[in-house]
Design goal:
Elements (H helix, E strand, L loop, with lengths): L3 H14 L1 H6 L1 H4 L2 H9 L7 E4 L6 H7 L4 E6 L2 H13 L5 E5 L12 E7 L8 H11 E13 L4 H14 L9 H10 L3 E13 H6 L5 H12 L3 H6 L3 E3 L2 E15 L3
Parallel strand pairs: 1-2, 1-4, 2-3, 4-5
Antiparallel strand pairs: 5-8, 6-8, 7-8
């Protein structure tokens, strides 16, 4: 496996090239989880919130009208610039943008009332460090909303999912299983207040080309998925029409974690 600095440099290169796609991506820009954030978090107008690995800035945008300030961080400067342009057009004037590594946050202890991280943690080489950092910067009693793609607990399905994700997106590190996340959450000293599973649909052509460098890469992902056993395809709701892969579903974990008082 690549060393951490190489992985993070590759993440920066990959997201830098595709930054605008993440602003407009339907899977990132939409989703019922953005609305549910407003019910999961007891938002107050005095709050300072940190959005880790903000991507296109969609979570920051959703929360900005309800809190005093959102600090949106990302490892990739071009991605952060795209998010800033997006939120400027949306008239979100209380969002501060900071280039930062999720595993080494440049903030003091107990700085934020809430922390969010949505559809990003599978790019982190050390998710345990991310959780420890999120817990560190949270105020006592503060909430962390973690939403990410997760691998099934079955080893064959786990390996299959992480393989096609890495083929599709070369900056992919690993989707953890929910039990793995739960163990890391406990080690970070956080408590699970809410734990929900979601099935996330993807229209394959748009999904694969968001990160693929060329048609050849996209076809190799398609051939890998469609060449797998039927039982495995069935788990991921693989839909083939006219000989082309059109649709699949993956698991997503949505958790609200809290830092004890």
């Amino acid at each position: 496996m690549e060393n951490e600095s190489t992985i993070k440099q590759h993440v920066q290169q990959q997201f830098g090239k595709h930054a605008s796609k993440y602003v407009t991506s339907e899977n990132h820009a939409k989703g019922d989880d953005l609305e549910l954030l407003l019910t999961w978090l007891p938002l107050e107008s005095t709050w300072n919130v940190l959005d880790i690995a903000t991507g296109g800035g969609h979570v920051a945008k959703q929360l900005s009208a309800h809190v005093q300030q959102v600090v949106a961080t990302d490892l990739t400067r071009p991605m952060l610039s795209a998010a800033a342009d997006h939120l400027k057009q949306a008239q979100c004037h209380n969002v501060l943008f900071v280039v930062a590594d999720a595993e080494q946050l440049p903030f003091l202890d107990c700085s934020f009332d809430a922390v969010t991280c949505r559809i990003a943690a599978h790019h982190f080489p050390n998710p345990h460090l991310f959780l420890h950092e999120a817990a560190r910067v949270l105020k006592p009693g503060g909430k962390l909303v973690l939403i990410d793609n997760v691998a099934p607990s079955d080893e064959v399905l786990d390996q299959f999912m992480n393989t096609f994700e890495a083929m599709r997106d070369t900056s992919h590190v690993r989707c953890l299983t929910v039990p793995e996340w739960q163990a890391l959450v406990e080690k970070a000293g956080l408590q699970v207040d809410l734990s929900l599973m979601n099935r996330k649909p993807h229209k394959f052509p748009a999904w694969v080309m968001r990160t693929a460098e060329n048609e050849e890469q996209a076809k190799s992902v398609e051939h890998f998925i469609t060449g797998e056993d039927q039982a495995v395809q069935d788990y991921f709701s693989v839909h083939i029409e006219n000989g082309k892969l059109q649709y699949l579903e993956i698991d997503e974990w949505r958790a609200v974690l809290s830092k004890p008082l």
